[in-house]
Design brief:
This protein is an all-alpha fold. It has eleven helices and no strands. The radius of gyration is 21 Å and the shape is elongated.
Length: 207
């Protein structure tokens, strides 16, 4: 006799809908009141589910916050940007594509990334570990951009690969977007144009 696991598409659909309701409610409450001020009970009430359902469908508060952040870290725009960068033979286009790609990733998740993680970052160790992973991935992506510029022999002659990564992070990293768009109120279009122009001036050997 073979034991088979029972799989109900209807039950799976209901579970996915419950998870989405919990995450949507947590997203709204965290942005409205701040992470620390919101309880799991309040998330459950807003999602119209029981507290144990929140834990079984998503997890505890750090788990919920981690789940909310995950789409920003795994955004497919990141892989598409790197593929375009590595296919380009134009150094200016390499930087402009990177500026556009980082803009898309930030703009798509702006409410959460700026409104919650940048302005008032939660102190949960589990969440910090996810944020640290995101920061490492960002640097690794910019390292691939720097490598492409090295391959194209496009960097200023006095600039090392390591310095190129640092300058890419300075010009194209999260803080550039947070400062210009978040704190100074620039549009994403205006910020992207400036960031790309300054990065080209800082890194490329145009002589």
């Amino acid at each position: 006799m073979t034991n088979r696991k029972y799989h109900s598409p209807r039950r799976a659909t209901a579970a996915a809908a419950t998870r989405e309701a919990v995450l949507a409610s947590a997203h709204s409450l965290f942005l409205e009141r701040g992470y620390a001020a919101v309880t799991v009970g309040e998330i459950a009430e807003a999602a119209e589910v029981a507290v144990p359902t929140v834990y079984s469908s998503v997890g505890n508060k750090p788990g919920i916050l981690t789940a909310l952040l995950e789409p920003a870290l795994s955004d497919p725009a990141n892989a598409r940007t790197l593929a375009a960068v590595e296919a380009s033979d134009n150094p200016h286009a390499v930087i402009e594509l990177t500026a556009e790609g980082t803009r898309i990733a930030h703009e798509r998740h702006w409410e959460l990334v700026y409104g919650l993680f940048y302005r008032n970052p939660p102190g949960e160790p589990a969440v910090k570990a996810v944020l640290d992973r995101g920061a490492d991935d960002y640097v690794q992506a910019l390292t691939r951009v720097a490598d492409r510029l090295v391959q194209l022999n496009a960097l200023r002659p006095e600039m090392s690969r390591s310095e190129a990564v640092d300058l890419l992070l300075f010009h194209l990293g999260p803080h550039a977007w947070m400062t210009l768009v978040g704190e100074r109120g620039w549009s994403f279009d205006r910020a992207q144009a400036l960031i790309a122009r300054l990065a080209c001036q800082a890194l490329l050997n145009d002589r």
